[in-house]
Amino acid sequence: MIHPIFTEKQNFVKSAQRIASYIHKTPIITCESINRLAGCDIYFKCENFQKAGAFKSRGASNAVFSLIENGFKGDVATHSSGNHAQAISRVARFAGIGARVVMPENSLMSKIEATKEYGADVTFCVPTLEARESTLANVIEQTGAREIHPYNNVDIVLGQATCTMEILDEIQPDTIVAPVGGGGLLAGTALAASHFGQSVQVIAAEPSGASDAWHSFRTMQFVPSENPKTIADGLLTSLGLLTFPVMLRHVSDVLLADENQIVEAMRLMWQRAKILAEPSSAVPLAAILANRAIFAGRKVVVIVSGGNADIDNLPWK
Amino acid sequence: MIHPIFTEKQNFVKSAQRIASYIHKTPIITCESINRLAGCDIYFKCENFQKAGAFKSRGASNAVFSLIENGFKGDVATHSSGNHAQAISRVARFAGIGARVVMPENSLMSKIEATKEYGADVTFCVPTLEARESTLANVIEQTGAREIHPYNNVDIVLGQATCTMEILDEIQPDTIVAPVGGGGLLAGTALAASHFGQSVQVIAAEPSGASDAWHSFRTMQFVPSENPKTIADGLLTSLGLLTFPVMLRHVSDVLLADENQIVEAMRLMWQRAKILAEPSSAVPLAAILANRAIFAGRKVVVIVSGGNADIDNLPWK
């Protein structure tokens, strides 16, 4: 069942107002040569230019300032290997509260450094979901911090929805394609499209090597992510209880892209469109190019979810 | 003496109208962590997102369509190792005329391919100014094509000026920093700032390894570029007769950056601001970071001139 908070348009408007001064209104970029290749008109919504380098700053701002509005004064905590960690740390600093972040010890050095630079207290753990959760539970027990889950949190989903609210303020697309990992961005996109769009179709893009959302969508049963293998490191997680029902109700399709297609799409975005997209952000374009017929002649928005790529280890080397 | 066409504000307005449908209005991006490093508020005007990947599309569109308006029906020609070639080729195709481009045989493969993809007829020559000019003279003799020089052309300078007109429509900076090679962008920037700005200071940034503009500015005598050596391959050329007097009159200072500073600034732009800047476009930020005191606390626009970097050979590898 879709969470009742999501059925009220006003909750989306309120979230957009709450976070307006803490986030960027990001630009939309077009590229003639990619349009020729794809056979449709693509509008790249560049969340790689979002604060802390990813759309995650939207949800993080909404979740943290929603707590503050309700009189919360403690620390916040989360486990994350990347963009959510940076986003929470940054906004906690703005809110004048502490951030406690559990990171797997194999996280990218650049993401660890950025998280620390934003002032977070970082605890490392072995890179398994179990270790992340138990380490976070310990941190919370010791510090009394409040967990902000990266997608199983209504304020996070409402925050991510503001990206599509911005898109629809500027253009009227036929289709919006968002990558899907835990589904926070996807759910926010689909909900915003249903509240504020005019017959806008929302399609999810997922790596073949982490195709749990694809299986969940097709079987209409929750299928967890098991041993995912993909360069798109932001899309490894399972859907959540909040996001799965939204996907079933408001998403038109889930399309897959394999690793070669993802790397090729990422390279096209860098070389042709000059968009510094991280691998996860190249999955939508990869899925479009792998399914040209579906998009032919359409006006398609691609959400470029983030730009925290490892520029010392580019996948086409 | 400054060319009289440049003293009429109306000529700038007319150029902006002429090219409006052939170019992008490019976004302005900010980055908190770079601002902290620099000690000033930097606004990156992202001409890397311009059509054909660089500001050159502005001047090229203005020059080609100015010819078309005057009844010209032949081909256009130029010599260029890079962005000007792509820009001229692209806009000639739009105008329905041919483009003949002389390129040094050591040009980046990606730039050669892009120029050909835009439909230009490419002739290669050895990589010396002499060979470029004599080969171009041959091409022009054989084809009757009209040369469009990359900066010794009033319509080119008027076109480049539209970048700063866009900036001043959006924000009121204290200072604008532009890279200087032949001086087309710099002259356009300085002229637009003087016509449309409110006490906006314009500063040029140049590689130490190609410091002819710096010498010319300080001696107030034209000093040609001799054996320049820099990674900033768009800034190798000498100033021109049109651009040098504009620099003397309207530019406040020329600042230098060495090769290490340029690479470090480029890396910061990619890693922190997610701006895919080519080396030449990193020279302004490098010059700011090398001269922090001059910019302290100021509102500074950096013109990111282009994004045609070689993503297979990044300078920090």
Describe the structure.
Chain A has 317 residues and is of the alpha/beta class. Chain A has 2 domains: 4-54 and 153-304, Rossmann fold (3-Layer(aba) Sandwich); 56-147, Rossmann fold (3-Layer(aba) Sandwich). The first copy, chain A, contains 13 helices and 10 strands. Chain A has helices spanning 9-19, 32-38, 56-69, 83-95, 109-117, 129-143, 154-170, 184-196, 212-219, 243-250, 259-271, 279-289, 292-295; strands spanning 28-29, 41-46, 76-79, 99-104, 121-125, 146-147, 175-179, 201-207, 253-257, 299-304. In chain A, α5 links the parallel β4 (99-104) and β5 (121-125). The longest helix of chain A has 17 residues, at 154-170. The mean pLDDT of chain A is 96. At the A-B interface, α11 of A face α11 of B.
Question: Brief overview, please?
Answer:
Chain A has 13 helices and ten strands.
Indicate how many domains the architecture of chain A comprises.
Answer: 2
Q: Report the β-strand fraction of chain A as a percent range.
A: 15-25%
**What structural category do the secondary elements of chain A indicate?**
alpha/beta
CATH class of the largest domain in chain A: Alpha Beta
Helix content of chain A: 40-55%
Most extensive contact: A-B, 26 and 26 residues
Strand order of the largest sheet of chain A: 1-2-10-7-8-9
For the largest beta-sheet of chain A, the strand count, sense and barrel status come to: 6 strands, mixed
What is the name of the CATH architecture of the largest domain in chain A?
3-Layer(aba) Sandwich
Radius of gyration of chain A: 18 Å
Unreliable runs of chain A, pLDDT <50, ≥5 residues? none
Number of strands of chain A: 10
SSE run of chain A: HEHEHEHEHEHEHEHEHHEHHHE
Form type of chain A: globular
The quaternary state of the protein chains shown equals: homodimer
